[in-house]
Design brief:
It contains 10 helices and 8 strands. The protein is an alpha/beta fold. The chain binds zinc ion (ZN).
């Protein structure tokens, strides 16, 4: 279906890019992107995906808005305190762009629901805040063959990488096992400057948009590290590990069913 007059005008500044055009915009409209986590990374990521006209945007989050979220989780407002994050996220995104569909999942991702939740999406954005969920999402996306854009932030720093299942390194190629519970501190213990997930979340949205348009060069095979205190980026080349427990040549993890190593609770 051709773009409407309203769409042509709304998306004009990206439509006139050589790499987009009307065909690219229609591709974005057909696309389905799942953002797992409506927090510090998920907020800017979802905002820019919605603004760009991603036709179907899924938002997964089981939390309610807390006062300590508002310093960085910009989808939510002070008046949303106590409301489910997926509700305030959905309202903010629809207010920005009523042309898109926002699907909400007020759930915690577990091995029992991960595969059905990500099914049908073209790209998944990892905007979670804990290691069990990060490894679960990696494994689910590798098993389902869905590109995953990983991101993580702490203090003044952020990292990100893109996983193209079985074509490039996955998260477990780098880190075969999650750290022990409590082994790595979180933002609740050591803090995070609010603009840091802002930087990384926007880059995650850009990465997803490029994947959908099939333009440019993505972060597959490259771990990007951002230091906000010195405002510097560096990157480390990463390769698939033939011994990777999920995408290696004889993987130990072949499903999320019984026997899947899970310590994330129900
Ligand atoms: Zn791997």
């Amino acid at each position: 279906m051709a773009l409407t007059g309203g769409e042509l005008k709304r998306y004009n500044r990206q439509l006139i890019l050589r790499e987009v055009g009307e065909e690219g915009q229609e591709r974005l409209r057909r696309a389905r992107v799942l953002v797992v986590g409506a927090g510090g990374l998920g907020s800017p990521a979802a905002y820019y995906l919605a603004a760009a006209g991603i036709g179907t945007l899924g938002i997964v989050d089981s939390d309610r808005v807390d006062l300590s979220n508002l310093q960085r989780q910009i989808l939510h407002r002070t008046e949303d305190l106590g409301r489910p994050k997926v509700e305030s996220a959905s309202r903010a995104l629809r207010a920005l762009n009523p042309l898109i569909e926002v699907k909400t999942y007020p759930i915690k991702l577990t091995p029992a629901n991960a595969m059905e939740t990500i099914q049908g999406y073209d790209v998944v954005i990892d905007a979670v805040d804990n290691f069990p969920a990060r490894f679960l999402l990696n494994d689910a996306c590798v098993l389902a063959g869905i590109p995953l854009v990983e991101g993580g932030v702490l203090r003044w720093e952020g990292i990100m990488m893109t996983v193209l299942p079985r074509r490039g390194a996955c998260y477990r190629c780098l880190f075969p096992e999650p750290p022990p519970a409590g082994g790595v501190p979180g933002a609740g213990e050591v803090g995070v400057m609010g603009a840091i997930p802002g930087v990384l979340g926007v880059l995650q949205a850009l990465e997803a948009i490029k994947l959908i348009l099939g333009v440019g060069e993505g972060l597959a095979g490259r771990l990007l590290l951002f230091d906000g205190l010195t405002t510097s980026f560096r990157e480390v080349a990463i390769e698939r590990d033939p011994a990777c427990p999920v995408c290696g040549s004889s993987p130990r993890i072949t499903s999320l069913g019984p026997g899947y190593p899970w310590e994330g609770g129900d």
